[in-house]
Amino acid sequence: MDGSEQMSKRQLQALQTRENLLNAGRAVFLEKGFQKATMTQINKLAHTGYGTAYVYFKNKDDLFTELMETIMQKMYDVAGLPFHPRTKEEAYAQILKQTRLFMQSALEEKEMMKVVKEAIGVSAIVKEKWNSIRARFISGITKDIQFVQDAGLAIERFDAALIAKGWFYMNEQVMWDLVLGEIEEDLDAVSENLSELYAGGLYK
Amino acid sequence: MDGSEQMSKRQLQALQTRENLLNAGRAVFLEKGFQKATMTQINKLAHTGYGTAYVYFKNKDDLFTELMETIMQKMYDVAGLPFHPRTKEEAYAQILKQTRLFMQSALEEKEMMKVVKEAIGVSAIVKEKWNSIRARFISGITKDIQFVQDAGLAIERFDAALIAKGWFYMNEQVMWDLVLGEIEEDLDAVSENLSELYAGGLYK
């Protein structure tokens, strides 16, 4: 065994420990919620030595934002699907599909999303992370709008960045309502109504 | 002087004290923000006796929600304007006017709205109050949508309550962006873009 191989083993072990801590974090957050969860509990559940969690994460908020990235990945994937419709109908069909998948992904992680909602309200770090997640979605939507404007499908005088914000906010808040069980309508009705309003207003 | 007149004087004085406490509360919240404000500071500024604030308000959160009602009154007035358009164009003109007034009212109370935003994040009582404010707006919008659907101006298959939610959420979040200075566009551009998207999607 040479030096580089030993390094790699140590690195692998470090990655494993990190993964264990993230899994333990997820379990602790799900059980306790954000505010009541502690790094000590996470360390304990991960069977890592006292204080080990602090070697890998600055604090509880830092560990949590990493978990958020994993949860959001599915929603990013949905939002990042190629969007090059050739007709208004194609655009609507794809917008509907994306909206539905976005809401569905959030519902599949319902319990963690509830903790995310709680954490946004109490942690400045998590709030900032959420704002950066928002910015990423809005920037993607802005590009999609510009594409259909350039293609002559959408009304050109709209401010793409502003419409993207409005559209994302509508989706975000209805998504929170769905996650928190504060909306009666089902996923299909929600996705269809929002997508039709948006596509109907944006497209020629 | 008979007994009833004395009662009335005492009642008047109580109303005055209450008003003084609310004014003092506003000043303290504006200076300290929600979390750092205390009932003691409010009592002191209102020159009322030690603990008097607690005679009139259960706690800081309770006093604050009363201030919120006053701030929101102007926005309620805007939302409650009679809405009986006879054409799509009339509807758009009024939606634009209402949207603009809603945003403008929030901007006129910009500093207090910042405190409201902070308070929603940290106080369950304020959060609940905000949810009831939201519900009031959404219920008003739902009725407006039903009116134009019944009048044959808007697309009938839309779920009025759902569209009302989406539309309010869009306005609310953009309003927060404006209040927090997180949006570049001006009031006119914001109102026009959102209103056009909404009216374009909802109306035939």
TrEMBL record, chains A, B:
Pfam families found in the cross-reference section: EthR_C, TetR_N
Q: Which UniProt keywords apply?
A: DNA-binding, Repressor
Residues of the DNA-binding region: 38-57
What are the HTH tetR-type domain coordinates in residue numbering?
Answer: 15-75
Q: Which Gene3D superfamilies match?
A: Homeodomain-like, Tetracycline Repressor, domain 2
On whether Disulfide bond is a keyword of this UniProt record, the answer is: no
- Report if keyword DNA-binding is assigned: yes
Source domain of life is Bacteria
Enumerate the PROSITE patterns for this protein: HTH_TETR_2 (PS50977)
Concerning SUPFAM superfamilies, the annotation shows: Homeodomain-like, Tetracyclin repressor-like, C-terminal domain
Q: What is this protein called?
A: TetR family transcriptional regulator
Q: Which organism is it from?
A: Siminovitchia fordii
